[in-house]
Amino acid sequence: MSNNTQQAGIKDEVDQRVADYERKEGFKSTLLEEEALRRGYEVRRLTFDTMIIKLDDKDVLFKDMNGPSSSAAMQEVCDNKYIARLLVRETGVNVPKSSYLRVNQPDDFIRFAEEAEYPVVIKPNNLARGQGVFVNIDSNEKMVKRLKELAELVSNPHEKVLIEKQYMGDDFRFFVVDGEVVSVTKRARASVTGDGSHSVRALIDLKNDRRKQNRNLKECLIPTDPKACNRLNREGKSLDFIPDDGEVVVLRDESNISHGGDSIDFTDVVHPAYREIAIKAVRAIPGLHYAGVDIIANDITQGPDSDNYVVTEVEFSPGPISMYPWKGEPRDMAGPVLDFYEQYVSAGKI
């Protein structure tokens, strides 16, 4: 058997093992794969979220939509919200007042909250999709209760978690690639709009039926567990409440798309100064070329000032919320990332 034949046989065996090991494909990597195939590139799927795309005869390894210019060090910094904020703040961009405290020391949390002035937010420092995020904590009693719940989630009584002054406003995700803002998406809190006849529960079911038709939102349905509807409960309403025709009922305090929030395109109406803020936030992480930037602001169509916005996070591997919005024009994410790597390879960086 020739060496070439032997190598081909080994490659076929590896390909089969990979296919047997992981047949399901991650959504973000699938979107990048589809764009690569559309452009005529060869793609070799390895696992759930990794693949090799052959660009200009170079094998380029990707995980989700992240390629070789995105290092593990960058991911660690972005995932550590506290450290990332320190770097972002050094660029002159507003970030929330925050601290990094051990979950089993409630007195430290209370001291911070009283000095910063309630309300505050507590959250794990490196979890995604809104896991363990508690907002609208406005008293010492609530603080102690939420810390106990968070301690159970992180499963380590000595774990450090983030506490921050809560900034009131709307939540926006900017996607930045190579110094340009590709998309701006408002992440609106989960809500339903009344028609005068259906209950909130029935309206959720109707809206979820529509969300199931959206390629991204079908996995992000509005929860129907009464305990999950914290905003609804706080306002003294239940799932049986029948809102008036046109009445908007907000269900949750959190604005995460994964928990039923709505993605609304704002790309064409955002003030240019906010674009510069998002670009600065990405450049604050050395070597980072593309990422999501989360900004809470009162109105991003008007210019920012010293106290009407904060940058809360630089997201290393943001979800494709701009590609399949609930409302507004779809904005591609996979294409600009692939554009970047076409230039990356052409410049001889691989």
Mean pLDDT: 91
Identify the strand order in the major beta sheet. 12-9-8-13-14
Named CATH architecture of the largest domain? 2-Layer Sandwich
Distance between the termini: 33 Å
Q: What helical percentage do the residues reach?
A: 25-40%
Share in β-strands: 15-25%
Classified in CATH, the superfamily of the largest domain is ATP-grasp fold, B domain
Query: Number of helical runs?
Result: 10
CATH topology (level 3) name of the largest domain: D-amino Acid Aminotransferase, Chain A, domain 1
Series of secondary-structure elements, N-terminal to C-terminal: HHEEEHHEHEEHEEEEHHEEHEEH
Could you characterize the architecture of this molecule?
This protein has 350 residues and is of the alpha+beta class. The protein has four domains: 3-65, no CATH class; 70-94 and 169-189 and 261-332, 2-Layer Sandwich (D-amino Acid Aminotransferase, Chain A, domain 1), CATH 3.30.470.20; 97-166, Dna Ligase, domain 1 (2-Layer Sandwich), CATH 3.30.1490; 191-252, no CATH class. The chain is built from ten helices and 14 strands. It has helices spanning 3-21, 27-38, 72-79, 81-89, 106-116, 140-154, 200-211, 230-234, 272-283, 334-346, and strands at 42-45, 50-55, 58-63, 98-102, 120-124, 134-137, 160-165, 170-177, 180-188, 191-193, 248-250, 262-265, 290-297, 309-315. The strands form four sheets. Strands 12-9-8-13-14 form a five-stranded antiparallel β-sheet. Strands 4-7-5-6 form a four-stranded antiparallel β-sheet, with helices on one face. Strand 1 (42-45) and strand 2 form a beta hairpin. Helix 2 crosses helix 10 and helix 5 packs across helix 6 (140-154). The longest helix is centred in the N-terminal third of the chain and has 19 residues, at 3-21. It is globular. The model is unreliable at 16-23 (pLDDT under 50).
